[in-house]
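Morning!

This is the sequence you dropped in the shared folder:
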Amino acid sequence: MLNEVPALIHDCPSCSLAEVWFEEDSSDVYLNLNRVATEEELENDHYLEYEGQTIETVAIKVAFCPYCGEKLTSNKELVVPQFQHHNFGSRK
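The structure's back. Tokens below.
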């Protein structure tokens, strides 16, 4: 379902003040970070449409919350660092 909301994996107070959330994919957990457009960026980038629009998103494979240290996976295997970066703005 498109409107389905994923279950909350970890509720860290440090993450509530930014566009940060955790997603689970099989036995892996990813920390997701969004960077959103500011008023200044709208003035400098004609590809952006509105303030708060997602400009970049990064997903980083993690085993622990980097803010509070809570273990997020039950996986006993070594976590191999991986990340995905998506840039939606005109600047690369």
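Headline: The longest strand covers residues 28-36.

More detail when I'm at my desk.
O.
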